[in-house]
Fold these 2 entries.
Entry 1:
Amino acid sequence: MPFQIITLSGMLGSGKSTIGKTLADRLNFQYYSTGNAQRSIALARGVTTLELNKLADQDPSIDREIDSVFKNLAHTNQNYVIDSRLAFFFIPASIKIKLNVDYKTAANRILHDSKRNNDEQYASLEEAENALRQRRASEVERFKKTYQVDIDNDENFDYVIDTTNKTADEVCDLIIEKFKLTPDNNHPLPFEGD
């Protein structure tokens, strides 16, 4: 039987990690994220993830190494939920889901998330919102230049969900229903495009 991969894309604060972990748990899939890939590569190189990020600014091979992790997951023999802005691009046969959120809600979520790294801590809601807008614009431009893909183009995805006023469980319910997914069904029924 074929194995199923669900890729979750979206900006910071859209709920990718929370939704990804919740969905993987409910479906009994493996959860994997860009953070997992970065930690694994940093460990292999004997550096911290912060040091790896600084190295990546000067060494494009690090991004290529991270990208290759996701490309290799396309040939896996396990079911995965993958939280990554570009996994949909590297795994085109996946169920590609984009999570949208308004910037104020995203900023509020990040501002009040004690689990965020220090580099994602902000003094005010306005500062967080401005930083999110700048970071998203930078990512969109960088990915267009590097990969010739627009991560903000909804046509790249099978399903786009606005998480602004939804809980993680509500979003998971929508995904499970849309694609007829169950823990025992690793070959979901074909779905009609919207």
Entry 2:
Amino acid sequence: MAKTFEEQISELENIVSELEKGEAGLDRSLELFEEGIKLTKSCQKILDTAEKKVKVLLAGDNGEMTEEDFGNEQS
């Protein structure tokens, strides 16, 4: 089963913490870095998908509600 976004972020935080300690050898550090890159790409894909789904409801001049993509709202 696929891991949730939150689970992946938690794993990424653990990897960063372990790398910051500086106690892992070169081989282990490279493994952790590689896993971190995979998690980062996976999380970015999840965020990109979520961003595409987000809609903002805006009240039109006639009082009807309209939908616009999240990034297209007007100031």
